[in-house]
Please model this.
Amino acid sequence: MDKNIRFIDLHVHLDGSLPVRTVRRLAEMQGIDTGAADDEQLKKRLQVSSGCRDLNEYLTKFDFPLELLQTPEALELAVYELMKLQDSQGLIYSEIRFAPQLHTRKQMTQRDAVKAALRGRERFLSENSRNGDGFCSNSAAGSLSGCRTGLLSNLILCCMRGDGNDDENYETLNAAGEFFDREGGVVAVDLAGAEGLYPTRRYEKLFERAARMGLPFTIHAGEAAGAESVRLAVRFGAKRIGHGINSVQDDELMRMLAAEGVTLELCPTSNLNTRVVDNILDYPVQRLIDAGVKVTINTDNMTVSNTDIRHEMKLLCDAFGYGDDVCKMFLINSAEAAFVTEEIKDRFLYEGK
Ligand SMILES: [Zn+2]
Model:
């Protein structure tokens, strides 16, 4: 793979992607014991083991990071450090997602949590002397040469599958509505959590509301549940699907995804961890491409899955003999599916060349 190739990550969870050194720092700041003598041990604690059985077990790996992310200072630092890491990995754009309702155990409201995350984003962008939108001033797409460009990130707010949290999910939509800005900030909402336990059909009213509010959304679907879950998410109005890998069970659904231009956010290592597939050679990425479905490659949880975007690309390149042209196609799909304005998408396409 070309070492100068640029990346976009549209599906990356903040709590599952904290750099190990940031976890240590957050624990020290708050006097919380990591239970680990060194970084190697701490990494093990944060990572899924090779014996992981399914998504439900995978989700237990978020308990400790979430414990550390209950103050505004911690959330701000977490977003800032994740952006720094992604910048160093050659990303030009990421949409970092988190569930504000999981950060209200102490004094924060969901609104406070979103504001803290936005501060982390703004701090990174201002320190890297970009102009809010992550690009140099007066940089029309054709005149970027000589201008230092780097990572831009936006936020996606996750509602959560679960019992008894309807009010919290509506509060998340309200926070998203307040801070929504396709030019930079909160750009969309999502539905995350245990798909096998809490089926997508329960969330129809929630997404009716999101659509009425004009919020774009992606939904985790077709990961722990089958094609029907994806079909419902698209019917609700999702423009993107988190994972959606089980769409291959249904040819008619794949035709629909292609016809409607719905983009899948594939996360290969995560799907191996949660046993959606047992072997990368069985990963149905080519079947989706052949069916005309737009697919993107993403990390999901860099720390939990011990991965990064380059590793995800390499995994597929090695397994299926893909070259840089296919990596470019993934990048173009990601740029086109980003929850930003057409003008910003054009800049990604230019930068990704
Ligand atoms: Zn995810």
The longest strand covers residues 152-160. Strands lie at 7-13, 91-98, 152-160, 186-192, 218-221, 240-243, 263-266, 294-297. Residues 11, 13, 192, 220, 242, 300 surround zinc ion (CB under 6 Å). Residues 7-351 form a domain with the TIM Barrel fold (CATH 3.20.20.140).
